[in-house]
Design brief:
Blueprint (H helix, E strand, L loop, with lengths): L1 H30 L15 E4 L5 E4 L4 E10 L5 E14 L7 E4 L7 E5 L4 E7 L6 E7 L2
C-alpha cells in the first residue's frame, strides 16, 4: 500500500510539473517575452533606434552616435535620469557578425541584438541583473 501511494504521488508530481512548464511556455510565447539573440553586421546598425521613454540612439556610418534622452536606471531598475550626448559606437566581436554594441557616451551595459533580421531590436540589462529588467530599442524604418 505504501509503495502504491509513493508511485501515485510521483506520477501526480510529474503531471503538475508538466502542466506548469506548458503554462510558462504559453505565457512567454503569448506575451512576447522570449528574446531571440541575433547577430548584426556593421551595415545593419546606422539609423535611428528608439524605445519611447527609453530614449533614442542615432547611429551614423562614420562610427558616431547621437544619444537623446537615454534613460538611466538605479540598482532597483527605476528610471532616475536621462543622458544625451555625442560619442562613438563599436561592435563585438567583429563588424560582420556582432552580438553586442557599445557606446562611449552615457554609462551602462553593452547592448545585445535580438528580434529578427527584418525587425531588429537591441536591449541592455538595467538595474540589478538578477531582476531581469531591460531597456529595449527598435530600429525605425
Amino acid at each position: 500500500m505504501r509503495d502504491e501511494r509513493g508511485r501515485v504521488a510521483a506520477v501526480g508530481l510529474r503531471g503538475v510539473v508538466s502542466v506548469v512548464a506548458v503554462v510558462v511556455a504559453v505565457s512567454v510565447f503569448a506575451t512576447g517575452c522570449m528574446w531571440q539573440q541575433q547577430r548584426l553586421a556593421r551595415a545593419d546598425i546606422p539609423g535611428t533606434w528608439t524605445g519611447g521613454e527609453a530614449g533614442t540612439l542615432r547611429f551614423k556610418d562614420d562610427g558616431t552616435v547621437v544619444v537623446t534622452g537615454l534613460a538611466e536606471y538605479n540598482r532597483d531598475g527605476d528610471k532616475v535620469s536621462e543622458c544625451s550626448g555625442v560619442g562613438e559606437w563599436g561592435l563585438y566581436p567583429d563588424d560582420k557578425a556582432a552580438k553586442q554594441l557599445s557606446i562611449s557616451v552615457c554609462d551602462g551595459n553593452p547592448w545585445e541584438f535580438g528580434g529578427s533580421k527584418a525587425l531588429p531590436k537591441m536591449r541592455r540589462s538595467v538595474g540589478n541583473p538578477d531582476h531581469g529588467n531591460f531597456q529595449t530599442l527598435s530600429r525605425e524604418e
